[in-house]
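Lab notebook page, bench 4
Experiment: in silico fold of construct C2
Operator: M.H.
Input chain length: 221 residues
Purpose: comparison with the prior construct
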Amino acid sequence: MSTGDGVKFIDPERDETFRRGIFNAIIAPRPIGWISTVDIHGRPNLAPFSYFALISSLPPIIAFSCNTPEDRQLKDTLTNVKATGEFVYNLATLDLIHEVNATSTPLPEGMDEFEFAGLEKAPSLKVRPPRVAASPVNLECTVERIVRLGDGPSEVPTHVTFGRVVGMHIHESYLDADGYFLTAKAQPVARLGGIQYAVSAPPFELARQFRRAAEESYGGG
Protein backbone atom coordinates (compact mmCIF):
# COMPACT_ATOMS: atom_id res chain seq x y z
CA MET A 1 0.00 0.00 0.00
CA SER A 2 1.34 3.43 -0.95
CA THR A 3 1.01 6.16 1.64
CA GLY A 4 1.09 8.84 -1.08
CA ASP A 5 4.50 10.24 -0.16
CA GLY A 6 6.64 7.84 -2.14
CA VAL A 7 6.73 5.34 0.73
CA LYS A 8 5.22 1.87 0.51
CA PHE A 9 3.68 0.40 3.66
CA ILE A 10 3.72 -3.40 3.99
CA ASP A 11 1.87 -5.38 6.62
CA PRO A 12 3.88 -8.65 6.83
CA GLU A 13 0.89 -10.49 8.28
CA ARG A 14 -1.68 -9.44 5.66
CA ASP A 15 -0.06 -7.97 2.56
CA GLU A 16 0.03 -10.43 -0.35
CA THR A 17 3.04 -8.62 -1.82
CA PHE A 18 5.14 -9.34 1.28
CA ARG A 19 8.24 -11.47 0.65
CA ARG A 20 9.95 -12.56 3.81
CA GLY A 21 13.35 -12.57 2.10
CA ILE A 22 13.20 -8.76 2.06
CA PHE A 23 14.33 -8.75 5.69
CA ASN A 24 17.62 -10.39 4.67
CA ALA A 25 18.34 -7.50 2.31
CA ILE A 26 17.30 -4.82 4.80
CA ILE A 27 18.91 -6.17 7.99
CA ALA A 28 22.34 -6.38 6.42
CA PRO A 29 25.15 -7.08 6.58
CA ARG A 30 24.71 -9.91 9.08
CA PRO A 31 27.61 -11.91 10.53
CA ILE A 32 27.62 -15.61 9.74
CA GLY A 33 27.28 -18.07 12.60
CA TRP A 34 29.45 -20.99 11.49
CA ILE A 35 28.42 -23.53 14.11
CA SER A 36 30.02 -26.89 14.85
CA THR A 37 28.29 -29.49 17.02
CA VAL A 38 28.30 -33.22 17.72
CA ASP A 39 25.36 -35.59 18.03
CA ILE A 40 24.77 -38.00 20.91
CA HIS A 41 27.10 -40.50 19.20
CA GLY A 42 29.90 -37.93 18.92
CA ARG A 43 29.55 -37.46 15.16
CA PRO A 44 30.48 -33.89 14.12
CA ASN A 45 28.32 -31.45 12.21
CA LEU A 46 29.19 -28.04 10.78
CA ALA A 47 26.74 -25.53 9.29
CA PRO A 48 26.49 -21.76 8.62
CA PHE A 49 23.60 -19.62 9.87
CA SER A 50 22.86 -16.12 8.58
CA TYR A 51 20.74 -15.21 11.62
CA PHE A 52 23.49 -14.77 14.19
CA ALA A 53 24.46 -12.07 16.69
CA LEU A 54 26.50 -11.11 19.75
CA ILE A 55 23.92 -10.49 22.47
CA SER A 56 26.13 -9.46 25.38
CA SER A 57 29.84 -9.21 26.18
CA LEU A 58 29.43 -9.62 29.95
CA PRO A 59 28.13 -12.23 30.32
CA PRO A 60 29.47 -13.28 26.90
CA ILE A 61 26.36 -14.48 25.07
CA ILE A 62 25.92 -15.20 21.35
CA ALA A 63 22.82 -16.47 19.56
CA PHE A 64 21.87 -18.11 16.29
CA SER A 65 18.50 -18.96 14.78
CA CYS A 66 17.42 -22.20 13.09
CA ASN A 67 14.40 -22.17 10.82
CA THR A 68 12.47 -25.41 10.39
CA PRO A 69 13.82 -27.31 7.34
CA GLU A 70 11.50 -28.72 4.70
CA ASP A 71 12.84 -32.29 4.83
CA ARG A 72 12.79 -32.95 8.59
CA GLN A 73 11.42 -31.66 11.87
CA LEU A 74 14.64 -30.05 13.14
CA LYS A 75 17.98 -29.12 11.63
CA ASP A 76 20.85 -31.35 12.72
CA THR A 77 22.54 -28.43 14.50
CA LEU A 78 19.46 -27.79 16.62
CA THR A 79 19.00 -31.49 17.35
CA ASN A 80 22.61 -31.65 18.51
CA VAL A 81 22.58 -28.56 20.76
CA LYS A 82 19.37 -29.79 22.36
CA ALA A 83 20.95 -33.17 23.05
CA THR A 84 24.42 -32.06 24.18
CA GLY A 85 24.05 -28.44 25.30
CA GLU A 86 27.26 -27.43 23.51
CA PHE A 87 28.49 -25.83 20.28
CA VAL A 88 31.43 -23.93 18.81
CA TYR A 89 31.26 -20.71 16.79
CA ASN A 90 33.92 -20.49 14.08
CA LEU A 91 34.65 -17.13 12.43
CA ALA A 92 33.74 -17.25 8.71
CA THR A 93 36.42 -15.36 6.79
CA LEU A 94 36.91 -14.48 3.14
CA ASP A 95 39.61 -17.09 2.56
CA LEU A 96 37.26 -19.78 3.93
CA ILE A 97 34.04 -18.67 2.22
CA HIS A 98 33.95 -21.57 -0.25
CA GLU A 99 34.27 -24.01 2.62
CA VAL A 100 31.56 -22.13 4.51
CA ASN A 101 29.30 -22.43 1.49
CA ALA A 102 30.09 -26.14 1.12
CA THR A 103 28.99 -26.81 4.70
CA SER A 104 25.54 -25.42 3.86
CA THR A 105 24.95 -28.46 1.62
CA PRO A 106 22.08 -30.61 2.97
CA LEU A 107 23.99 -33.85 3.53
CA PRO A 108 22.45 -37.09 4.81
CA GLU A 109 22.32 -37.44 8.59
CA GLY A 110 25.62 -38.54 10.07
CA MET A 111 27.82 -37.32 7.20
CA ASP A 112 30.78 -35.20 8.26
CA GLU A 113 30.66 -31.65 6.84
CA PHE A 114 34.28 -31.10 7.89
CA GLU A 115 35.39 -33.90 5.58
CA PHE A 116 32.96 -32.89 2.84
CA ALA A 117 34.39 -29.35 2.79
CA GLY A 118 38.00 -30.47 3.22
CA LEU A 119 38.39 -28.81 6.61
CA GLU A 120 40.76 -29.92 9.34
CA LYS A 121 39.31 -30.34 12.82
CA ALA A 122 40.94 -29.06 16.01
CA PRO A 123 39.96 -30.28 19.48
CA SER A 124 38.13 -28.00 21.89
CA LEU A 125 39.13 -27.78 25.54
CA LYS A 126 35.86 -27.34 27.43
CA VAL A 127 33.21 -28.69 25.04
CA ARG A 128 32.95 -31.77 22.83
CA PRO A 129 32.38 -30.28 19.34
CA PRO A 130 35.56 -29.81 17.30
CA ARG A 131 36.75 -26.47 15.98
CA VAL A 132 37.54 -25.39 12.42
CA ALA A 133 41.34 -25.35 12.64
CA ALA A 134 41.78 -22.83 9.81
CA SER A 135 39.41 -20.24 11.30
CA PRO A 136 41.23 -17.44 13.16
CA VAL A 137 38.69 -17.48 16.01
CA ASN A 138 36.70 -20.26 17.68
CA LEU A 139 34.34 -19.66 20.59
CA GLU A 140 33.46 -22.66 22.74
CA CYS A 141 29.90 -22.32 24.03
CA THR A 142 27.43 -23.97 26.36
CA VAL A 143 23.71 -23.55 25.74
CA GLU A 144 22.01 -21.03 28.01
CA ARG A 145 18.52 -21.56 26.61
CA ILE A 146 16.62 -22.30 23.41
CA VAL A 147 13.58 -20.20 22.59
CA ARG A 148 10.92 -21.36 20.13
CA LEU A 149 9.06 -18.74 18.10
CA GLY A 150 6.59 -18.74 15.22
CA ASP A 151 3.76 -20.98 16.36
CA GLY A 152 1.00 -18.74 14.99
CA PRO A 153 -1.26 -19.56 12.04
CA SER A 154 0.72 -20.07 8.79
CA GLU A 155 4.00 -19.30 10.59
CA VAL A 156 7.13 -21.43 10.40
CA PRO A 157 8.59 -22.40 13.79
CA THR A 158 12.02 -20.92 14.51
CA HIS A 159 14.38 -21.80 17.37
CA VAL A 160 16.87 -19.28 18.75
CA THR A 161 19.79 -20.83 20.62
CA PHE A 162 21.57 -18.63 23.17
CA GLY A 163 25.06 -19.76 24.11
CA ARG A 164 27.51 -18.65 26.80
CA VAL A 165 31.11 -18.38 25.63
CA VAL A 166 33.23 -20.51 27.97
CA GLY A 167 36.46 -20.51 25.98
CA MET A 168 38.11 -18.58 23.14
CA HIS A 169 40.76 -19.69 20.65
CA ILE A 170 42.36 -16.81 18.73
CA HIS A 171 45.31 -17.11 16.36
CA GLU A 172 47.93 -14.79 17.82
CA SER A 173 48.70 -13.19 14.44
CA TYR A 174 45.22 -11.60 14.59
CA LEU A 175 45.88 -9.81 17.89
CA ASP A 176 47.66 -6.47 18.17
CA ALA A 177 50.14 -5.57 20.90
CA ASP A 178 47.32 -4.48 23.22
CA GLY A 179 45.33 -7.69 22.76
CA TYR A 180 42.67 -6.25 20.44
CA PHE A 181 41.41 -8.36 17.55
CA LEU A 182 42.42 -7.23 14.03
CA THR A 183 39.04 -7.42 12.35
CA ALA A 184 40.17 -5.89 9.06
CA LYS A 185 42.95 -8.46 8.73
CA ALA A 186 40.58 -11.37 9.34
CA GLN A 187 38.10 -10.13 6.68
CA PRO A 188 34.96 -11.67 8.19
CA VAL A 189 32.25 -12.36 5.62
CA ALA A 190 28.65 -11.22 6.13
CA ARG A 191 25.36 -12.21 4.52
CA LEU A 192 23.14 -9.87 2.53
CA GLY A 193 19.93 -10.74 0.68
CA GLY A 194 19.56 -13.74 -1.63
CA ILE A 195 22.95 -15.32 -2.39
CA GLN A 196 24.89 -12.10 -1.87
CA TYR A 197 27.79 -11.79 0.57
CA ALA A 198 29.95 -8.87 1.66
CA VAL A 199 33.28 -8.13 3.29
CA SER A 200 33.71 -5.08 5.51
CA ALA A 201 35.17 -2.00 3.88
CA PRO A 202 38.26 -0.49 5.54
CA PRO A 203 37.19 0.62 9.02
CA PHE A 204 37.05 4.23 10.16
CA GLU A 205 37.06 5.78 13.62
CA LEU A 206 34.49 8.22 14.97
CA ALA A 207 34.77 9.66 18.45
CA ARG A 208 31.62 10.00 20.51
CA GLN A 209 30.35 13.58 20.78
CA PHE A 210 27.85 13.20 23.62
CA ARG A 211 30.03 14.68 26.36
CA ARG A 212 31.13 17.66 24.28
CA ALA A 213 27.54 18.39 23.23
CA ALA A 214 26.37 18.16 26.83
CA GLU A 215 29.07 20.54 28.04
CA GLU A 216 28.22 23.06 25.33
CA SER A 217 24.49 22.83 26.07
CA TYR A 218 24.69 22.95 29.87
CA GLY A 219 27.85 24.96 30.43
CA GLY A 220 29.88 22.02 31.63
CA GLY A 221 27.73 21.59 34.70
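Observations: The first helix runs from residue 22 to 26. The longest strand covers residues 137-149.
Next step: discuss at group meeting.
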